Amino acid sequence: MKITMKDFVPSLGDWTGNLTYLDYTSGKPYTLPVKINISQNKGSLEELIWVYTYPNEPRANSIDTVKITRNGAGIDNERVVEVLRSVQANFITTERNGVDGNDHKPAVIRHVYAFGNENLEIKKLVKFDGEDKWILRNDYVLKR
Length: 144
Fold this sequence. Notes:
Layout: H1 5-8, E1 13-23, E2 28-40, E3 47-53, E4 62-67, E5 74-75, E6 78-85, E7 90-100, E8 105-115, E9 119-128, E10 135-143
Antiparallel strand pairs: 1-2, 1-10, 2-3, 3-4, 5-6, 6-7, 7-8, 8-9, 9-10
């Protein structure tokens, strides 16, 4: 599976919506509003700048630099495992081995990016070692 910056062109710009994440302590989902601006790093053909703004929790605001690997096989330290392209939307799925949860258990961490001209969704799923079930850790659902 290979990706390029061209795959991310529909995601560039301003987005508004919600982040829903699983609070591992309570076991319940928590939803908060979010705005995301995605732009291409002018200094690099392979980097995107993601600016996250949380109107109700400004201390959580952050900026992320997301880099597509030169060979197009990954995003940051995650390997691309699936790419689906259509006129309506692009879907990119990445995975990496890591740790998650309050007790930092080993897990496979999957991100699913789905974006078109009007909708953007980014899901983080976690499958703990020894488990068969994927857990939806967080889900950004946004519109223009």
